[in-house]
Amino acid sequence: MADPRAALLPLFRAAIGAAFGAEHADTDPALRPSAHADYQVNAALALAKRLKRPPREVGQAIVAALAPNAIIERTEVAGPGFVNVWLSLGHLSRELAAVAATPGLGVVPAPRPDTVVLDYSSPNVAKEMHVGHLRSTILGDALARVLEALGHRVVRQNHLGDWGTPFGMLIEHLLDGGAEAAEHSIADLNAFYQAARQKFDADPAFAERARRRVVMLQGGDEDTLALWRRLVDASKRYFARVYTLLGIALGDADIAAESLYNPMLAEVVAELRERGLAVESDGATCVFPPGFTGREGEPQPLIVQKQDGGYGYATTDLTALRYRLRTLGATRLIYVVGAPQSPHLAMVFRAAELAGWLAPPARAEHVAFGSVLGADKKMLKTRAGDTVRLIDLLEEAVTRARAIVDDKSPELEPDERAAVARAVGIGAVKYGDLASDRVKDYVFDWARMLAFDGNTAPYLQYAHARIRSIFRKGGVPVPEPRSIALAAPSERALALAVLSFPTVVGEVGELLAPHKLCGYLYELATSFSAFYEHCPVLKAATEEERASRLALADVTARVLARGLELLGIEAPARM
User: Fold this and answer.
1) Domain spanning 4-87: which superfamily?
2) What does each C-alpha distance from 469 to 113, 157, 462, 476, 546 come to in angstroms?
3) Which tens digit of pLDDT belongs to each residue from 64-82?
4) Which CATH architecture has domain 457-566?
5) Domain extents in the chain
6) pLDDT band at 188 (very low <50, low <70, confident <90, very high)
7) Arithmetic mean of pLDDT over the chain
8) DSSP assignment, residue 537?
9) What is the arrangement of strands in the sheet containing 302-305, beginning at the earlier edge strand?
10) With pLDDT > 70 as the criterion, what percentage of the chain qualifies?
11) How would you classify the pairing of strands 372-373 and 442-443?
């Protein structure tokens, strides 16, 4: 119940060993899907250089050494030394039926599951979420879903920015009479933040009060903490609203805010001193990880305690990392944070290694990502030049999708059209983000994202709905999984695409690259279109052929739906 390549790999390695000796049996056969065969093997090209023999001769020797088996139907040497492979129909049919019979569709739990601590989203208290939070939130959610599907224990960590010097001015402004707006709407609270900042910058007396209030906050003054909690609670209610609309599985239980680590900061700095890593430099306490230098080649410091005795982001990040390893038991730390933070995180990871906290089997990875751009290839802004509020973007997506759904599917009931519009609109935004390689910037384009053709969420959602409509129109139940005949070329191609699902999911979990799953789902949907065009389903020539094609259609729909689900996207049954 796996990608056929899993069965082919040992066969080709055995053939290489038989033909050229056991010392070459570890050669990677490099199996790839091919337009000319089921798979193409290019091991001969790599071996030819090592053996100093013509590639075609090496390929022919590998083919000759392949023992007869029930998996491979035939092989041939092609081009400069590629080996083309066709699988037996019996093997393909059995594997496909077995996959169709399992809830996981061939995806099996990892043999050595990790405890994955996944840091993503991380908005700031007393500020609205904007388009800059989109990528971290969507990417993190998709990765959490994929890793859980692979059997890993995933601990979500929403590292809210809820601590630090800004809260001094916010609390003082709250005391000056701005509390009521904060109780009802984060939009008011956002304006409240801006007003507090203006007052801080313009009024020295207010600024001094704000600084004293920070000291009281950090010292644990109860009255100050009560005011701080009002700001935090108002923000959490707003975040929950955004996450619900976006379909993101983040709740209060997943919040691990900066304030959580405040009691641990002094202990962490003391431990770094004891290990000889933290040293005094210009009045501050710093760690100097080797290999990090400034513009003039001077050692780059990671400041863990400021001159005034306070702590900054580096201290909090180190403390959070230590907590995740020691308390949460992480074996894999994943940070879904923008690419500009790469140097900072690299220094934090290196300092943690030097401190002995981050040691094998535990490892830390930065899932860096680019920016969301407007049509002008600059950071996405409103027409007035302001930052785009995330809630506005999402609501506009649903509104635009509703107009399309109303036009395309007027036969649906209003409530169903509303549900489909939400799935299509939010799915379009998510898929438009996830389908591009995360390390690259991408241009936000409504027309492209909401299109019902091309590599888009609406195209995949419609492909799934179209398959489900076959069963509704035919008035037939979903068949029980059994042997699926694969006579036509498009049936065979679709079967191979379905069977690749577990391998792709595994690659996404290893490489942390959701765009690979997007690309796979698009190829699966196009393979189904070719199958549907060339192979009548309800009007198949025989009852056996009809049942077989219905079963193939059903497992394709299930893979499409499951793949979209792993991306956090709904797959409506009707559109």
Assistant:
1) Arginyl tRNA synthetase N-terminal domain (3.30.1360.70)
2) 38, 40, 10, 10, 15
3) 998 878 899 999 999 888 8
4) Orthogonal Bundle (1.10)
5) 4-87, 164-231, 390-449, 457-566
6) low
7) 91
8) S
9) 278-281, 284-287, 302-305
10) 97
11) parallel
